[in-house]
Every structure is written in structure tokens, then in C-alpha cells.
Amino acid sequence: MSFRYLGNKTRLVDWIVGEIAQVLPAGSTIADPMCGTASVSIALARAGYSVTAADALRFPVIHARARLLMKQAPRFEAFGGYDMALKWMNAVEPIEGYFYQEFGSAGRPANGRMPRLYFSDANAARIDGVRAGIQHLASSGVINELEHSLLLHHLILSTNKVANISGTYGYFLRKLARNALQPLSFNPVQFEQTPGNHRVFQGAIEEHASKLSVDAVYLDPPYTKRQYAGNYHILETLAQEDEPVAVGDGGLRPWKDQASNFCYKRNAAMAFRTTLENLNTPHIFVSYSQDGQLNEDQLLSIFNEYGKVKVHQQPYVRFRSNSQTKAGAVLERIYHIETF
Fold this sequence. Notes:
With 340 residues, the protein is α/β, with parallel strands linked by helices. It has 2 domains: 1-72 and 199-222 and 260-340, Vaccinia Virus protein VP39 (Rossmann fold), CATH 3.40.50; 76-190 and 232-259, no CATH class. 35% of the residues lie in helices and 14% in strands. The protein is built from 13 helices and 7 strands. The chain has a 7-stranded mixed sheet, covered by helices on one side. Helix 2 links the parallel strand 1 (29-32) and strand 2 (50-55). The radius of gyration is 20 Å and the shape is globular. The two termini are 38 Å apart.
């Protein structure tokens, strides 16, 4: 699953799972409660763990449901199978609706701003058509919950491929890029027969940490000031299936209620303590970048309050959303806390 995403661990996942496997035997239960694109969740599932995945945002939960819970294609009886459901998605008639007006190159945003070039006018109308079709199928009971999630998973993935952005949805490019001129299309995804029993739910880690009953927890918190709810507002709107007020030139959905304390330098330490105090598990693994809001000494000062700490580190090339972003290598660290 190709996805441009802040903090995406795809290039580090083998190392991360390898470090966890040094401590936790296959067959154990592990939670990934800040799962993002679920790249670590599915890698842990492949390694033989039973995974509980969650996220504060809705669109990562949609991805996790598709990657963890669907070990084969849903039946899609109303369409005559999965392939026919995709054929339907590719044939849906365009609609000049919310996405066309608010995020399309020929749109007329409700707040009177200039058109937002997140998508070509053709793709924005296709997105509206598919959204409306999925909502109708779900509300009329034609598709079940898993089928609904899979169609949204496809819509989010395909929309992301034709988005006219440099990496996040904080703003759009001034001219439509080559990828944005490609037509929106839907192709089959691979389903994996992973061992183990997996669960997926939505919620902020501070709210559900005490409810996790697992052998280990893998934490991958945001480590910069860039809020995921704002930077991926369009994908969240697809997952929420709503039409929020599009604010400002960039058309962001109201996101402050989904803001993460881990992104604020003044609140990050408190967020870690709140989370760690409520986790009841023998092993906690924390991924954190050298570029993070808290430095290594600050993190160790916190983690040492909760158990014996070992640190592992790996260099990698940092995420760049545009040409202004700092380039070069950075260290990713895994802090293993063997709790008291």
C-alpha cells in the first residue's frame, strides 16, 4: 500500500518488528494504538502476533480494518463479487457536489475563496459520485460493515494517488501536477491470511490505554508540531462521510477537537505520562524520532519512571513533504520499557 504519510514506518518496519521479536514470542498479543497507515500492524500480524490496532482519526481505522480484518475479499453479494464491486466504483457517474465545489479546480468554495486545486474538476466530481454511491449502499443495507469499510479504503487510497499536493493536505500545488491529471481509478488490493485474532477500533490513546489487555504495546506517537487531523483533513472527510465547513484558503475541516497533545512541546511530556500511567502491560515499545518535540534525555527521564529502559536506534531518510523541508538522515529510536 503506497501512501505518503508523516511518520510512515514502511521503511523501518522490518527493523521495528525485529526488535520487538527479540523480546516478544510469536503468538503473543500486541497493541498498535496509534496505527496510522497500519504498516506496523500488518507487519506484526505477518510475524504471528494477534494485533489490536486503533487510532484517534477515522481514516487510519478504515485502513487497519481492511488490512487486518479482511483475510479474504468480502463477498459483495449485491454486486456478484469483489471484482464487480470495483467495476461499479469505476463506472459511477460523476456529481458536481461538495468535493467538486470545495476542492476541485473548477469549484466555487462556499466561503468565496478561489478554487482549491486539490483535484482536477473531473476527479473531484468522480469522488463525489463514488461517495454518494457508497453512502446510499450503506444506508440501504446493500453492503455490510466490512464491505463498507473496504469501499472507503479504496476511495481513500485512490483519492490520495490523484491529489495535487506535495505530501500532505495542508495546501495544494499552484498547478495541477501530472499525477493529478490521471483519472481516478480503483484496482484490487491484496488480502493477507495472517495468523492470529485481530481487533480494530477508534479512539485516542489517552482515552483507551487502561482498556488494553495485551502482552505488549507499540506506541508510535506524533513527534513534530504538525497535526495529523489538519494535514490529512481531506482523507478524514472521506472516512467520516460528512461535509464539514471548509475553512480558509486551504479548506481545512475543523480539527482542533482531534488535536494530539503529543504535537505540542509544552504538552508532550504530560501526554506520555498520562498514557504510560494507564497502560497495564509488561512491555512497551515507543518509536520516536531524533527530530521529535522531546529530546532523548527528556524521554529517558519520563520512561525510567515506569520501568527498565533499553534504547535501539536506526538511521533513515526523513520524510519531506516539500522542497523547503529539511533533508538528510535522522535517527529513529525504539525505547523498550520493561515495566515495573
